[in-house]
Write a structure and sequence with these properties.
Oligomer: single chain
CATH superfamily of the largest domain: P-loop containing nucleotide triphosphate hydrolases
CATH architecture of the largest domain: 3-Layer(aba) Sandwich
Number of helices: 14
Distance between the termini: 55 Å
Radius of gyration: 21 Å
């Protein structure tokens, strides 16, 4: 048993999502969105590095020493998998571990809207799940892929850095590929995937122009492609995909994206105040013919109003979802205000509305 495993055991017992190990500080865990210190000695650089190197593959250690940061996955059988990131900072080495549960929760268990489950049955197209880091994108995508795995008879390829949720082949054949281990990059894996008879492709992160280009092309050529972006709303997600391309190509990509896009799910996580745990508020955009026309005509600023009028298709605005969670008594109005897009709507819910300098 590695020395660091005791921290992972504590994480699991406390229901923590992340473990932070930083030279010169006490270890800390994130519980329900908040950092809490562990009663432990201050970590020194050499001792922490020895602890980290005990669980890292040799080629990852070499990469870390050459570049100053590295990602990989670490698993404790019977407990959980962990997404590890080592990095150098001013006082020495540091690391953050995100727990990835062994059991994949269904969309119903996560309390996701029914339309999210239906995305698993799409024959082709591009589905984007977006939100800030730690907003539960991977968990939502895992639920969708699990639904497909249980109900379809297809070939699923996932490309991740590192592999997070592990799906055992059920009705589908599932192949997991890790960037840096099984393939050189997201883009090279996507190029290869098109020759590997896939029906569903999961791209763990659409980081660069080449990866986004290939994902959009794959979605337009008969594949169902799932991907993630760090955007906070459906409209901003569409803009982000288009703006990554050179100006000379943007008209063409608007047309291609309009044809290929099927849905955007933008989500934010909240700490629950009625019980332990967290819950997600989702903005859902379904690419109807009217939405496609807005994308083609560069009128993405009209997408929020299109979402408002598209409730019969399962669409919903993020602020509406947040407001509903406040009304249920699940989340604190102050946190709702902090994470809402239209803050003026939530100010009347606050006992002491802040003087928000960003509104000036």
């Amino acid at each position: 048993m590695a020395k660091i495993d005791a921290f992972f055991q504590l994480m699991n017992e406390q229901g923590a999502s992340d473990l932070h190990l930083v030279t010169g500080q006490q270890p800390a865990i994130r519980i329900r969105g908040e950092i809490e210190r562990i009663k432990y000695d201050l970590l020194d650089n050499d001792g922490l590095k020895a602890m980290l190197y005990e669980i890292a593959p040799e080629h990852k250690i070499k990469q870390f020493e050459e570049t100053g940061d590295v990602d990989f996955a670490y698993e404790i059988p019977g407990l959980a998998r962990y997404r590890a990131n080592f990095f150098m900072q001013k006082w020495g080495c540091a690391a953050v571990f995100r727990e990835i549960p062994s059991n994949i929760l269904t969309a119903e268990q996560l309390g996701l809207p029914a339309v999210v489950s239906k995305l698993a049955s799409l024959p082709r197209g591009l589905v984007l799940v977006t939100g800030p880091t730690g907003s539960g994108k991977s968990t939502t995508l895992a639920a969708i892929i699990d639904q497909a795995n249980r109900t379809r008879k297809d070939h699923i390829i996932t490309v991740e850095d590192p592999i997070e949720f592990v799906h055992k082949s059920q009705q589908c054949i599932v192949n997991h590929r890790e960037v840096g281990v099984h393939t050189k990059s997201f883009s090279s894996a996507l190029r290869g995937a098109l020759r590997e008879d896939p029906d569903i492709i999961l791209v763990g992160e659409m980081r660069d122009l080449e990866t986004i280009r290939l994902a959009v092309e794959a979605a337009s050529t008969g594949h169902l492609v799932f991907g993630t972006l760090h955007t906070t709303s459906a409209a901003k997600t569409v803009d982000r995909v288009i703006e990554v391309f050179p100006a000379s190509e943007q008209a063409q990509i608007r047309s291609t994206l309009a044809d290929g896009l099927r849905a955007v799910v933008a989500q934010v996580l909240f700490k629950r105040i009625d019980k332990k745990g967290r819950c997600a508020a989702l903005e859902i955009l379904i690419a109807t013919s009217a939405v496609r026309n807005l994308i083609r005509e560069a009128k993405t600023f009209q997408i929020p109003s299109m979402i408002q009028t598209g409730k019969k298709y399962g669409m919903q605005l993020l602020d509406d979802a947040i407001y509903e969670l406040v009304n249920k008594g699940w989340i604190d109005p102050d946190e709702a205000y902090a994470k809402a897009n239209d803050k003026t709507r939530f100010r009347p819910l606050l006992k002491k509305p802040p003087a928000d300098f960003t509104d000036a």
